[in-house]
Design goal:
The structure holds 2 protein chains of 2 kinds. By secondary structure, chain A is α/β, with parallel strands linked by helices. Chain A contains 17 helices and 32 strands. By secondary structure, chain B is α/β, with parallel strands linked by helices. The N terminus of chain B is likely disordered. Classes of the chains: A alpha/beta, B alpha/beta. Strand 1 of chain A pairs parallel with strand 8 of chain B, so a sheet runs across the interface.
């Protein structure tokens, strides 16, 4: 059994009461002194003999007196301590003395608690019964509080309540949430509550009901991350509570398979175009899992099935599923595993807003005519063709305008804006571009013969819109461009950058990927800041062997968007990249990499709230998982835009407006961190969280044990110590009686 | 004052608590003597002299050995033989009147500090009784009352008025000084030229060596000596329970003690003191008797006198 008590190691629950008791120990001293002063007087003749006897026994008598005094003081001191402990374990007296008692239950209602072996109750069911019994057994006057330890789970009040009936009713009606465990958060809340109770409540017990799954530790064993936080939270509670104990409701048989992630490989999904989705499956069992069947469905139609082969215990397995959404609009993609004993995470959903196309605005600073090619000609061709160079199959929809048309063109409708050989943007254009990028747009800049480097820097650089990743510097010219090999070529540096990854794979396969045969005759030297904020995607070769060449393509996020900056032109006037076969796939890969991913407002986690543009769906009642309904309302934000909002979504599944087609709009997934429900031994949990092993109650007796403890308001430890102290005091009184009789001293 | 012996239950008058209520020492002494005579089978008078003096009618308590059967044969009445003084015996009663003798035990009924049956009362009762007995059998009786020095000295005499003189002296003796028993005994030894029976009645609260030395001195002068150590019952048993402030007589200071804690040691000290004197007396062939003031005098005196008579026989 666990005992949280220090006292001499024991900590006194109300120091002032103990002090009063201690003051009572002065009673025997006073009695002792009074006895010395209160005496009868006898005129005595045989004084010689009395004096002689006194002289002979002086030291012995003195020792006896002090011994008796010490025993009496000690007896009273222990008695006071015992009575104090007993008093404080009594609710009524505790209340009278302002020493109310409180029990705070941190209830792990995360979905791992729902793991249920056939024929046995789940840990959640057991915790629910335990908590109900505990609340039913609390004496009147005691206060209790239940803190849900699920991340984003339900919230049940913010202070202890004496209304046990209402608390029990809430517990009885509770269901396991689909959220992950957040023990640290719940313990922090408990600590905050305890701070307010420190001076008013004598007994402050904190009981944690949990299954001790690995997910509840979440890195605690590594001593970092949330585990370190959990340790701090435990320490904070230990500092303020009179007792902290963890009831282990878990089982060593706990095992689980779950889908941890489903994610599109591209930032945009375009209708009719295959898109790869990466699906991650976790084996949180103690055995290898072989050929687990994964099923991927789009809007309920199976589009991909795969046997996952062998997944080692504790490992995850990634699957790439190519899915083609037939139409633009919202689609529900779902990856599913066969049902196991914890079904919540067997499926994972992704709401995808399928686009009809990716509109790209090409701004040509030197448009061509019937005789010459414009600077964006190669770009237009590249975005009009598929990556394989075929007509059709591309997701991009390029539109070319002149530089002069730029300030009249609304930019938000385009996924990307490409400036090619633009002289210098006006201030207004610069501001529009800044706003466009900061709100999530992609800006790609190619210089050219018309580009005034200084003015470009001034307009879009740090002196203006602060968009340029690097400054445009001096024009670098190669001396004899007509001579083969004299031009500057790209140095892909091992194809390590993600944009070049596919080229690298091809290069490794022995294919000619075309970067090293691109010749550049002129480029503007890019002044790349050395603070690491700018990625260099491509470099030129250097004349000096071993030295890094000048940057050819750089990029940097800006606001919610991104800017890509080339050093040379998009046409063939400064280089030979445009006509080369690598130009088109490079631009496509660059686009996939650089296109900012818009925040996924359609796929949420448990505990998150709906916050959508008002035009996505209709407000009102929405259907929710578990046959529930939620209310979605329209709110106007500060910028005047209308949004659809809701309260926190507590159940995993799909949400859709009740009115209309009933097509899902929002998908909510359980916390992927909760998949690993393998049981952690109490000792390991204690070691990882800074608890003592005795603080963890393990086994099947926890129901009876905690209930009996809490039935006495959780003050069993206090009363037990109190009883022992009183017994000890009685023992001392007995010793005192015997000593007094032996010493023949007055009593 | 004459009290008819046949109508009085003398024994009840011999309890110190009763005697304490009787102010007149002469009455007390006669009560004592008549009382224990009535209760004894053997006359104490014989303790001091052995020569026949006269017959007297037998009374209950007389030793039947002294019935004169010849007279009985002639007269058919019981007479016992009484004896005259064989020698010119002088009895010198030496009574301690120091302050320590004023202690009156707490066990006496109706006790109050400074009142009740004092050791001095007990001592004077014994002295008066013995004087009465001695004079009654024609011995000479004298008295010395002392504390630091001999306050009164009455030479032994068998004058019929001697008993009254002794009683008066005992009644008026001062009792508020320290004691010097040993020196006093030396002084008396020097003053008594005729061989005498010296009866020292004292609590002997003094240096035992000095006392023994005084006794030796008296024995050296060939005096017969009887030492009666008069002790209150409290002094013998130390029966106190509660914390007590003991104020010493004879300027012995004060002491607050828990009596139960000290009782054992006190009694041990007391016995040690008495034993020193008792052993010295034994070696010097001196009678030593410790008298408890809480006991009736008819228990103390006849016992002592019977023992002494047996020794002298």
């Amino acid at each position: 059994m666990l005992v949280m008590m220090p006292i001499l190691a024991f900590g006194f629950l109300t120091p002032w009461l103990f002090a009063a008791g201690a003051a009572a120990t002065s009673i025997p001293i006073i009695i002792h002194l009074l006895n010395k002063r209160k005496f009868r007087v006898i005129v005595w003749a045989a004084m010689d003999f009395l004096l002689a006897a006194q002289r002979r026994n002086a030291r012995k008598l003195k020792f006896r007196r002090w011994l008796l005094l010490a025993v009496r003081c000690l007896a009273l001191l222990i008695l006071a301590a015992g009575v104090a402990q007993l008093l404080l374990s009594n609710a009524v007296v505790g209340g009278m003395l302002g020493g109310q008692r409180t029990i705070i239950v941190v209830w792990d209602d995360s979905y791992s608690m729902a793991w249920q072996k056939p024929g046995t109750p789940s840990a959640f069911d057991r915790s629910k019964r335990l908590l109900g019994d505990l609340l039913a057994g609390l004496p009147a006057g005691d206060t209790a509080m239940v803190i849900h330890a699920s991340r984003g789970g339900p919230v049940a009040g913010n202070k202890p309540s004496p209304d046990h009936v209402t608390l029990k009713a809430a517990v009885d009606a509770a269901q396991a949430s689909d959220a992950g465990t957040d023990l640290a958060g719940a313990l922090d809340q408990a600590a905050e509550t305890l701070k307010d109770l420190e001076n008013t409540t004598s007994s402050r017990q904190v009981v944690v009901l949990t299954d001790l799954s690995r997910s509840s530790l979440a890195g605690a064993q590594k001593g970092e991350g949330s585990g370190e936080r959990l340790k701090k939270s435990v320490a904070a509670v230990q500092k303020l509570a009179t007792a902290l104990r963890v009831i282990d409701l878990g089982s060593d048989e706990q095992a689980n398979m779950g889908v941890a992630e489903i994610r599109a490989q591209r930032p945009v999904v375009v209708a009719g175009t295959p898109t790869e989705f990466r699906i991650t499956v976790v084996n949180a069992t103690d055995h290898p899992q072989i050929d687990t069947q994964l099923t991927v469905s789009l809007d309920g139609v199976i589009v991909h099935t795969e046997k996952l082969g062998k997944i080692e215990p504790g490992n995850s397995h990634n699957v790439l599923a190519s899915v083609t959404a037939p139409t633009a609009g919202l689609h529900l993609l779902e990856a599913k595993l066969p049902a196991d004993l914890l079904p919540t995470d067997d499926a994972r959903r992704l709401m995808i807003d399928v686009q009809r196309e990716v509109p790209v605005l090409l701004v040509d600073g030197s448009p061509g005519d019937n005789r010459t090619l414009g600077s964006t000609t190669y770009l237009a061709v590249a975005y009009s063709l598929s990556a394989e160079g075929k007509t059709g199959g591309t997701i991009f929809s390029p539109k070319t305008i002149t530089e002069l048309e730029l300030d009249k063109t609304p930019l938000p409708g385009y996924a990307a804006v490409v400036l090619s050989d633009v002289g210098s943007p006006t201030k207004r254009v610069a501001e529009d571009l800044k706003k466009y990028v900061e709100e999530g747009g992609l800006l790609i800049i190619f210089p050219g013969g018309r580009t005034n480097a200084a003015m470009m820097d001034e307009a879009l650089g740090d002196g203006g819109a602060k968009l340029l990743p690097a400054t445009f510097g001096q024009l670098i010219k190669v001396e004899h461009p007509e001579q083969v090999g004299e031009g500057v070529t790209f140095n892909p540096e091992g194809f390590t950058h993600p944009v070049l990854q596919k080229f690298g794979e091809a290069y490794q396969a022995g294919l000619q990927v075309g970067f090293t045969n691109v010749q550049t005759q002129q480029y503007l030297k890019l002044g790349v800041p050395k603070d690491g904020s700018v990625e260099t995607i491509l470099r030129y070769t250097s004349k000096q062997a071993g030295a890094a060449g000048d940057a050819a393509v750089v990029t940097r996020p800006a606001g919610k968007g991104r800017v890509v900056q080339f050093a040379s032109s998009a046409d063939a006037t400064w280089n030979t990249f445009g006509p080369k076969p690598s130009f088109l796939p490079f631009l496509h890969e660059l686009m996939y990499y650089a296109l900012p991913r818009q925040p996924d407002v359609l796929t949420l986690g448990v505990g998150e709230k709906i916050n959508l543009p008002a035009d996505v769906a209709s407000p009102g009642a929405w259907t929710a998982p578990r046959k529930e309904r939620i209310s979605v309302t329209t709110t106007i934000e500060k910028d005047g835009r209308a949004r659809l909002t809701s309260g926190a979504l507590t159940a995993a599944g799909v949400y859709s407006p009740a009115a209309g087609s009933g097509a899902p709009v929002i998908a909510v997934n359980p916390d992927a961190d909760e998949i690993d429900i393998r049981h952690v031994k109490g000792a390991a949990f204690a070691a990882a969280t800074g608890l003592e092993a005795r603080d963890i109650v393990v086994g099947n007796s926890e129901l009876k044990m905690v209930n009996s403890e809490s039935g006495t308001s959780g003050a069993n430890t206090d009363t037990s110590i109190g009883r022992w102290l009183i017994l000890a005091a009685l023992g001392f009184f007995l010793v005192e009686t015997v000593l007094a009789r032996v010493f023949s001293v007055y009593r | 004052m004459t009290i008819p012996a046949e109508h009085v239950d003398y024994r009840k008058y011999l309890d110190p608590r009763t005697l304490a209520k009787i102010q007149a020492l002469d009455i007390r002494a006669r009560l004592i003597v008549e009382g224990f005579i009535t209760g004894m089978h053997r006359s104490p008078y014989k303790g001091f002299s052995v020569e026949f003096a006269q017959h007297r009618q037998y009374v209950q308590g007389d030793d039947i050995r002294y019935i004169d059967w010849k007279v009985f044969g002639r007269t058919d009445r019981h007479y016992i033989k009484q004896y005259e003084e064989e020698t010119n015996l002088q009895v010198m009663l030496v009574v301690d009147a120091s302050e320590s003798m004023t202690y009156a035990g707490t066990q006496t009924k109706g006790w109050q500090p400074g009142k009740g049956w004092r050791k001095f009362d007990h001592a004077t009762s014994i002295a008066a009784s013995l004087a009465y007995v001695a004079l009654h059998q024609q011995d000479s009786a004298g008295l010395a009352v002392f504390d630091q020095k001999v306050r009164h000295f009455i030479k032994p005499s068998n004058n019929p008025k001697q008993w009254r003189i002794i009683v008066d002296e005992l009644t008026t003796a001062p009792k508020n000084q320290k004691t010097r028993t040993g020196a006093i005994l030396d002084e008396i030894a020097e003053q008594m030229h005729h061989r005498s029976l010296i009866v020292l009645i004292s609590d002997l609260f003094d240096d035992p060596a000095a006392i023994v030395k005084g006794i030796q001195h008296l024995r050296y002068k060939r005096h017969d000596l009887i030492v009666l150590q008069v002790m209150d019952h409290d002094e013998l048993e130390f029966p106190f329970d509660t914390t007590t402030l003991f104020k010493g007589l004879e300027e012995m200071g004060e002491l607050v003690v828990e009596p139960r804690a000290l009782r054992e040691a006190y009694i041990e000290e007391m016995k040690k003191h008495s034993e020193i004197i008792r052993e010295a007396c034994h070696k010097l062939h001196v009678d030593f008797v410790q008298v408890d003031t809480s006991l009736p005098l008819d228990v103390t005196l006849p016992g002592f006198l019977a023992t002494r008579a047996a020794r002298m026989k």
